[in-house]
């Protein structure tokens, strides 16, 4: 049997641990293990979970940056009667069986966080079983009775709302089997244990999305002004009196004025940070610094989500030295060792997971905005690291928790907690109210969902922002921006998404080596199957379809050209009620996904032709007039004619350029007279 006890996603996909941290092998396939059986060790080889101990800690095996709760058997009951001890022993054995003989996840084994969740349900089950002792006709139940008697299990489901996780536990125990458990677990399909349907994270509407880009960009610029001073400022608070108002210092009996420390306002002036700690980051007292630093980290985290599409825990797992340069194309050197073409490099963010014998990197393209954000986070990290007495290096978390400012527990190192309250949310984000057009855009983005009847998305409500919305929105808008014009997008964002398209939309030859990791078993580079590249690619059909429908079907301007005429007929059919917009959307998404249709803006309107267009590459835009894939817009056609007429004044009448432009004007005018002006008459 493998020595692996738990597997956290891909964290231990090699199936082995270093020899110094290897847990005990299961000496017995059936029955209970010995009391000194080790379930988990930390990286130094110290046992953190021993079968006979009252506390099991599986944090060494977790993947998330945030710590999971320890499994405590000593706090389940107030007293320790024989019945309670028997229930605890049952739960220990069930957890042992789930760890070694359960199944699930990518690798067929449970994660540490899932095991922790399962214990929470089993804890409730133990308490339910014990409470039944108050019923003379029942008495204290065992977990064996609970999981084998339908009436008992139905009562538990009815009284305790644990359907989702309970279903997972029962399925796992069914897989473990009667031989190891000693009894046959009830089939969970006999009970109503379906999880409540959860909605997908919505795409952030364009108007709100653009405002978010501008807001967090401006806030980042504000913080970045003090990037060279933040470290020394934060580290100064290792002095417990620093930043406290003078009157409080007097009451503490620090001695004469020579012993007084700078109050907060003076401290900000000394470090040149007065213009940084204003508005949302105003900090008038030492007690508020923890909250302000958390808000600054929140801005940094939001920028990283916004421009990379990283998941929440992927960001929080980042270490201090997370930025690196990767060579995409090697330099071209001639026979005389002269560099003809410089190497092409990209800056990437990476999170690292330790494997046996090598490190696994998961990486994301880092634009200039992300680099600035990381530099701010590093400055804050260096200051906090001094309070924690840490060295900022490859093993130091980037988002160190600023709670060290308030709670002097240097041995309790953790990442920032952005979830215990909404204190990290910025006041300015509450100004992003949902408007009617935002709700309409939401409805178009997901026709199967009724946003109009969801209170969180009511008109006038602040947008309910979550970190995962950035991943979906970046994939959607990012894949669009390589083909479509979103002129109000910030220049940095549009530039970044076009670069991203070069790496994500094209082949994976370079992508695997830059953003993947080396798999020793396969002897090749592997792109993690949860990488953002796949979201980015899959967003293209939806974004192209939505843009086509929004631009073509919901605008009054008539359309001409090969595809334009077809779209115009579809508009009339929609107005007449012959077809539904959902049918057009579904058909369009399917055609884009199958490579039958594409979309990009042109000088005269748009083009739905798939693949390369030689005329477009050569600038011969009048070829669009006779192309089957063209969409001709009257306003753009008229503007092109005016531009061409103005261009004529730059050339002599007997020049070749004059003749070419004149020919273009004649073709454009002929199309306008034949197709557009005739229709208008």
TrEMBL record:
Source organism, top-level taxon: Bacteria
Protein name (Swiss-Prot/TrEMBL): Integrase
Native organism: Pseudomonas lundensis
């Amino acid at each position: 049997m493998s020595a692996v006890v738990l597997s956290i996603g891909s964290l231990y996909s090699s199936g082995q641990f270093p020899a110094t941290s290897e847990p005990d092998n299961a000496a017995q396939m059936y029955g209970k293990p010995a009391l000194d059986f080790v379930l988990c060790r930390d990286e130094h080889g110290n046992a953190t979970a021993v079968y006979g101990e009252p506390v099991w800690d599986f944090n060494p095996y977790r993947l998330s940056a945030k710590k999971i709760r320890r499994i405590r058997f000593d706090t389940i009951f107030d007293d320790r009667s024989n019945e309670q001890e028997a229930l605890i022993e049952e739960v220990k054995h069930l957890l042992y069986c789930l760890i070694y003989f359960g199944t699930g996840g990518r690798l067929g084994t449970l994660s540490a966080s899932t095991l922790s969740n399962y214990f929470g349900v089993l804890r409730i089950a133990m308490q339910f079983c014990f409470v039944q002792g108050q019923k003379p006709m029942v008495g204290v139940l065992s977990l064996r009775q609970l999981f084998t008697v339908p009436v008992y299990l139905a009562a538990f489901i009815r009284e305790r709302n644990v359907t989702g996780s309970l279903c997972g536990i029962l399925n796992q125990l069914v897989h473990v089997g009667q031989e190891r458990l000693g009894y046959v677990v009830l089939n969970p399909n006999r009970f109503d244990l379906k999880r409540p349907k959860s909605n997908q994270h919505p795409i952030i509407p364009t108007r709100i999305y653009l405002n978010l880009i501008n807001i967090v960009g401006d806030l980042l610029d504000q913080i970045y002004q003090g990037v060279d001073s933040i470290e020394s400022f934060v580290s100064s608070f290792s002095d417990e009196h620093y930043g406290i108002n003078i009157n409080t210092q007097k009451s503490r009996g620090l001695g004469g004025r020579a012993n007084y420390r700078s109050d907060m306002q003076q401290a900000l002036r000394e470090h040149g940070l007065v213009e940084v700690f204003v508005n949302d980051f105003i900090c008038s007292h030492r007690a508020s610094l923890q909250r302000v630093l958390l808000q600054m980290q929140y801005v940094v985290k939001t920028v990283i989500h916004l421009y990379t599409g990283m998941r929440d825990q992927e960001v929080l797992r980042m270490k201090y030295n997370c930025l690196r340069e990767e060579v995409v194309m090697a330099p071209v050197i001639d026979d005389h060792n002269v560099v003809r073409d410089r190497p092409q490099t990209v800056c990437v963010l990476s999170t690292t997971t330790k494997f046996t014998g090598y490190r696994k990197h998961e990486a994301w393209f880092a634009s200039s905005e992300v680099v600035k954000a990381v530099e701010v986070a590093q400055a804050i990290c260096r200051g906090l690291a001094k309070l924690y007495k840490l060295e900022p290096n490859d093993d130091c978390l980037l988002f160190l928790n600023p709670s060290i400012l308030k709670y002097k527990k240097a041995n309790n190192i953790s990442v920032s907690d952005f979830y215990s309250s909404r204190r990290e949310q910025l006041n300015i984000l509450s100004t992003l109210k949902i408007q009617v057009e935002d709700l309409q855009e939401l409805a178009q983005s997901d026709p199967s969902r009724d946003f109009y009847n969801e209170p969180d998305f009511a008109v006038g409500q602040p947008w309910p922002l979550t970190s995962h919305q950035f991943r979906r929105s970046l994939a959607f808008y990012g894949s669009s921006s390589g083909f479509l014009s979103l002129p109000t997008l910030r220049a940095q964002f549009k530039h970044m998404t076009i670069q991203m398209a070069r790496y994500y939309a094209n082949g994976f030859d370079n992508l695997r080596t830059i953003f993947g990791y080396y798999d020793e078993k396969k002897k090749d580079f592997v792109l993690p199957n949860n990488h953002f590249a796949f979201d980015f690619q899959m967003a293209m059909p939806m974004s192209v379809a939505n843009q086509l429908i929004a631009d073509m079907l919901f605008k009054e301007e008539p359309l001409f050209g090969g595809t334009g005429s077809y779209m115009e007929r579809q508009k009339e059919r929609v107005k007449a009620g012959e077809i539904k917009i959902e049918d057009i959307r579904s058909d369009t998404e399917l055609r884009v996904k199958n490579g039958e249709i594409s979309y990009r803006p042109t000088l005269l309107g748009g083009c739905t032709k798939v693949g390369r267009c030689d005329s477009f590459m050569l600038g011969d835009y009048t070829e669009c007039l006779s192309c089957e894939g063209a969409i001709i817009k009257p306003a753009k056609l008229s503007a092109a004619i005016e531009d061409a007429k103005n261009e004529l004044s730059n050339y002599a009448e007997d020049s070749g350029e004059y003749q070419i432009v004149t020919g273009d004007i004649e073709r454009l005018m002929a199309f306008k007279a034949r197709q557009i002006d005739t229709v208008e008459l």
